[in-house]
Amino acid sequence: MSTSTEQSTGAGRRGPGSGEVAAFRNVSKNFGAVQAVNDISLTLHPGETVAFLGPNGAGKSTSIDMLLGLRDPSAGSVTLFGGTPRQAILDGRVGVMLQSGGLMPDVKVRELVKFACDIHPRGYDVDEVLKTAGIADIADRLVDKLSGGQEQRVRFAIATAGDSDLIVLDEPTTGMDVSARQAFWAVMRAQADAGRTVLFATHYLEEADSIADRVLVIHRGRLIADGTAADIKARAGLRKISFDLRPEDDSDLALLNNLPGVTSLDISGRTVRINSNDADAAVAAIYRAGFYPRGLEVSGVGLEQAFLTITGEQDAADESASLAKENAR
Ligand SMILES: Nc1ncnc2c1ncn2[C@@H]1O[C@H](COP(=O)(O)OP(=O)(O)OP(=O)(O)O)[C@@H](O)[C@H]1O
């Protein structure tokens, strides 16, 4: 069994260049008429922290299920460490925290986490795992008497019960309070610093922005973006313009709607907030229209806005492709 020092350092047996962690090769998955995953190819590398983003029903959980060998692809192949997902899991190379699935009832937290430590080929000491997951104080509680956030922490403890190379987390912080979230990500950062690969699906885009060094965006089963959070924000090409109107501004506010490249406009009191895909032209037009903006600021948009933009663009492209197809009939 590993010591707590090994738990925090990852026993020093990993590092960049130690091979391919996971590979999807032209993977699709259908459930009857529903195409949940559509021709995804990607490779995960050692030491990466990867956020998996997508709207509800995009195909994240289905992809994770295939990564873990819980579902077979309808087409294509998934490998983990060059072999089957099943073998990687049997070898204890993967720690998993899934979104759903009840925890075993009628057992205490400590018993359940100890079981996870015992069955892991390189399991850690149970007390260390309980402490790291912040559940030492509820170790003697029955698992089915926990709050939602406490249950998540127990799932987290199980995912980190041993020295795995890949940690897969499906919406891990749902139900956690702010301090639990911060503690959770501090532990995950330490896991990544130790060279482990961490893949997490989330709807909290600010978490993806601050934690992940790579962001995958899946939409309607297709991988539509793969890069750093900065790449994805730049790809959305949006800038945020904000300013206050001066009391003497008497130009028609409707003119703001007609600025070049405006994708959204919000006027609250005398404060104007604009998202624009052509900020230079929009700012010039603001002055041309006769406004005297006070405290004008132009900045990049957050990952959330970029995500909405690129998924919206994909919807528009899909819609026009299907219209073109219909017209060709
Ligand atoms: N067992 C199933 N049978 C039929 N359809 C399914 C099944 N599992 C998933 N789907 C469908 O496949 C699509 C992708 O679902 P999936 O759960 O992978 O999405 P998700 O991105 O994880 O969504 P969420 O963010 O809401 O958890 C959805 O349209 C869903 O309804």
Automatic annotation (TrEMBL):
Q: Which organism is it from?
A: Streptacidiphilus alkalitolerans
Q: Where in the cell is it found?
A: Cell membrane
Query: Ribonucleoprotein among the record's keywords?
Result: no
Membrane topology per the entry is: Peripheral membrane protein
Pfam families associated with the record: ABC_tran
Question: Known SUPFAM superfamilies for this protein?
Answer: P-loop containing nucleoside triphosphate hydrolases
| Classification of source organism | Bacteria, Bacillati, Actinomycetota, Actinomycetes, Kitasatosporales
Q: Which PANTHER family match?
A: ABC TRANSPORTER ATP-BINDING PROTEIN (PTHR42711:SF17)
Q: Does the keyword Transcription apply?
A: no
Identify a single GO molecular function assigned to this protein: ATP binding
For this UniProt record, give its keywords in alphabetical order, as a comma-separated list.
Antibiotic resistance, ATP-binding, Nucleotide-binding, Transport
The residue ranges of the ABC transporter domain are 22-245
Q: What is its main location?
A: membrane
What InterPro entries does the database record attribute to this sequence? AAA+_ATPase, ABC_transporter-like_ATP-bd, ABC_transporter_ATP-binding, P-loop_NTPase
Q: Any idea what this protein is called?
A: ABC transporter ATP-binding protein
